[in-house]
Recover the amino acids of this structure.
């Protein structure tokens, strides 16, 4: 059983495995990603490929057309003697990383895969629980800088594309999961936020939504996240950097609850970034972190949905809200009964528990192959918000055997389908939707936000494509989608959700006042990818504007990006990044996928 | 003669199907995931870096196996581990066990005396105590 080697800087002796013989989940065989091919080309030029897993790195990464000029650097120095405050970083080389859903073409071989922990090398922890993890990120950035290599962070591997991925230095943030809820001192909080200082949450990058839900429910007073995606395994930074959303048409997506970002950038220097127009903390808090305070609206809005490219985000400061409840109601209807409600964003006459009032979360999942009268091919899923008084018992949804079944997130649903026999798709999809969206039989199931949204099952090859469109154009977009699915069946439902527009520069929900998100999760097969391509082509041909979810299947090339956001908005994002990072820094924190959209370097 | 050939081809087809099905049986897997917190949600886990090993149970289960891995912090010159730490500082959050592609063929060939099983551990990254979370400065 080969042991795993850990070094303070992660660059000493290494083994190619964990405590066992086959640590990582293997990537899907025979389906190398485009990014893998690109990086392999880089390695081939350098002659570095083929070095054994035990080898130590001595030769720097060669230049690429978009990379800054490379210098020949000397062999890696012998690790310095360990001090008591060297962070513990577990290192694996030539590590095969795959995302949680093992989507084909996502992830691949990583030269150096780092897992920093919130402990020092001697196993001790710090009074400031996050301190070893922060030190680790700073050291890793400096190390990548010296080697002139790229470095990126991954969260829970939730994304269904390579938005987070690089083949060179990948930092697994999962163990950096320290947080605190509320401030004791007024001195560190800006005057406008002092009345709600007990609702400000500092969460390290690897903190998962489920951990935050648990912590906030146990806080005094009890709190909750204002919104979330439909599952709870994402990390807070992974979810917000890609613009994850629910269906909060009165609130917006997850990035809207962020108030400051703590970013490790070039030279291992770290910055606390907050908007100048609405600062949340004082310089005293930045000093507490050892960070430089930057108050800059443009930088904050660009970096909040920064696609992981403004540096390694060590932590965020977010604003929670008083604990509230959500009542889930799921009803199966004919598509014709809900069609106009989708187009008008109006629930009048649907017979919902909220009457004709739009609930907090309104969603319609459609089987595009069962849209006829009597086919019951549409599922209305609503969550109505209700208040919970202090001291009132929380509405707990029983779990496990005998408990109530939660509605599952859509990727889980789609991933269970197969495209092997297209003729079976309509019925297979209908069966999956009934089982997974789970109509509540007229009941309203009351719970907390943390209780309503559960973990996501790995799907062994799930994928998804999601559009953001102006809600006034839903009818035209839906018509284009259904024209494609009528001619070319592929195993994916069509789900409609509505989200308030958000101010981040490259927000995936940019259309005011409300962006409609249309998601089509499926199994990652050729047929599904072709279906997605046909839909994008149909929308382009019709001149319909759309954004795409940053963490899902994306169109090839940057044309959609310019059409969706417009050049001025993209230029603002690029300018904010240019002002924050040097050319070498922009390259270092970029990746191949961002390069293809001209956002990376 | 023709009947013999047809029977032989049938036998080959049956054998081929059996081999494919036997190898495919290496995909079976089941998992345990811990729940905690006030709402008994599944604990968050490190999905990126699980630790796996193929463990052996032999002689029809009479000889069983306990796997108790650690993390190695430092290797000596001879490659042995000279400094160890717990594999997961917050305990295991999910444990999966499943067959590997050669499990069933080996069971058949060895008349059931050897059964390899792949065990995978995902470390928990947070463990809610249900108590008030830490408060900041």
């Amino acid at each position: 059983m080969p042991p795993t080697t850990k070094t303070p800087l992660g660059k000493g002796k290494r083994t190619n495995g964990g405590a066992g013989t086959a640590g990582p989940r293997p990537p899907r065989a025979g389906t190398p990603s485009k990014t893998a091919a690109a990086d392999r080309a880089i390695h081939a030029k350098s002659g570095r490929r083929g070095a054994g897993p035990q080898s130590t790195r001595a030769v720097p990464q060669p230049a690429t057309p978009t990379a800054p000029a490379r210098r020949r650097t000397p062999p890696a120095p012998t690790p310095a003697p360990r001090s008591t405050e060297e962070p513990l970083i577990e290192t694996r080389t030539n590590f095969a990383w795959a995302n949680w859903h093992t989507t084909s073409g996502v992830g691949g071989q990583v030269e150096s895969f780092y897992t920093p922990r919130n402990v020092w090398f001697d196993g001790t922890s710090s009074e400031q629980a996050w301190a070893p993890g922060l030190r680790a990120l700073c050291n890793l950035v400096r190390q990548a800088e010296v080697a002139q290599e790229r470095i990126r962070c991954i969260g829970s591997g939730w994304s269904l594309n390579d938005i987070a991925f690089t083949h060179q230095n990948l930092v697994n943030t999962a163990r950096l999961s320290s947080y605190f809820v509320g401030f004791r001192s007024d001195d560190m909080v800006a005057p406008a936020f002092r009345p709600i200082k007990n609702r400000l949450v500092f969460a390290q990058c690897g903190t998962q939504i489920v951990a935050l839900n648990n912590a906030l429910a146990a806080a005094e007073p009890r709190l909750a996240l204002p919104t979330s995606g439909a599952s709870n395994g994402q990390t807070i930074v992974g979810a917000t950097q890609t613009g994850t959303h629910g269906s909060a048409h009165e609130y917006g997506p997850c990035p809207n609850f962020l108030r400051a970002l703590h970013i490790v950038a070039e030279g291992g220097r770290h910055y606390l970034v907050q908007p100048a127009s609405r600062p949340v903390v004082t310089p005293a808090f930045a000093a507490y972190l050892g960070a430089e305070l930057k108050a800059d609206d443009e930088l904050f809005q660009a970096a909040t949905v920064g696609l992981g490219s403004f540096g390694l985000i060590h932590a965020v400061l977010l604003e929670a809200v008083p604990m509230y409840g959500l009542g889930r109601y799921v009803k199966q209807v004919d598509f014709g009964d809900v069609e106009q409600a989708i187009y008008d964003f109006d629930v009048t006459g649907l017979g919902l528990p909220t009457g004709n009032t739009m609930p907090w979360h309104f969603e319609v999942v459609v089987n595009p192959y069962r849209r006829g009268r009597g086919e019951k091919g549409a599922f209305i899923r609503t969550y109505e918000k209700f208040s919970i008084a202090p001291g009132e018992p929380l509405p707990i949804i029983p779990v496990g055997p005998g408990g109530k079944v939660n509605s599952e997130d859509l990727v889980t649903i789609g991933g269970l389908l197969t495209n092997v026999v297209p003729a079976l798709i309509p019925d297979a999809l209908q069966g999956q939707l009934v089982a997974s969206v789970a109509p509540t039989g007229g009941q309203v199931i009351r719970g907390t936000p943390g209780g309503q949204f559960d973990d996501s099952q790995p799907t062994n090859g799930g994928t998804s494509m999601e559009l953001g469109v102006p809600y006034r154009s839903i009818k035209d977009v839906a018509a284009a989608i259904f024209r494609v699915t009528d001619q070319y069946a592929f195993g994916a439902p069509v789900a409609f959700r509505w989200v308030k527009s958000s101010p981040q520069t490259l927000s995936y929900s940019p259309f005011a006042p409300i962006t409609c998100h249309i998601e089509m999760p499926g199994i990652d097969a050729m047929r599904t990818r072709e279906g997605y391509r046909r839909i994008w082509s149909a929308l382009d041909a019709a001149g319909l504007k759309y954004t795409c979810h940053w963490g899902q299947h994306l169109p090839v090339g940057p044309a959609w990006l310019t059409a969706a956001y417009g050049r001025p908005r993209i230029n603002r994002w690029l300018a904010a990044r240019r002002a924050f990072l040097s050319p070498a820094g922009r390259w270092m924190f970029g990746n191949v996928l961002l390069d293809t959209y001209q956002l990376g370097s | 003669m023709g009947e013999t050939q047809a029977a032989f081809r049938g036998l080959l087809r049956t054998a081929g199907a059996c081999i494919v099905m036997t190898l495919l049986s290496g995909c079976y897997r089941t998992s345990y995931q811990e729940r905690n917190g006030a709402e008994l949600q599944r604990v968050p886990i490190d999905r990126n870096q699980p630790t796996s090993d193929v463990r052996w149970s032999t002689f029809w289960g009479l000889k069983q196996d306990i796997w108790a891995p650690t993390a190695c912090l430092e290797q000596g010159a001879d490659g042995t581990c000279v400094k160890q730490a717990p594999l997961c500082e917050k305990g295991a959050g999910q444990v999966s066990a499943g067959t590997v592609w050669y499990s069933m063929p080996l069971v058949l060939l060895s008349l059931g005396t050897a059964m390899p099983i792949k065990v995978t551990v995902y470390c928990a990254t947070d463990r809610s105590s249900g108590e008030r979370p830490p408060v900041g400065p």
Summary: Residues 2-123 of chain B form one domain. Chain B has two helices and eight strands.
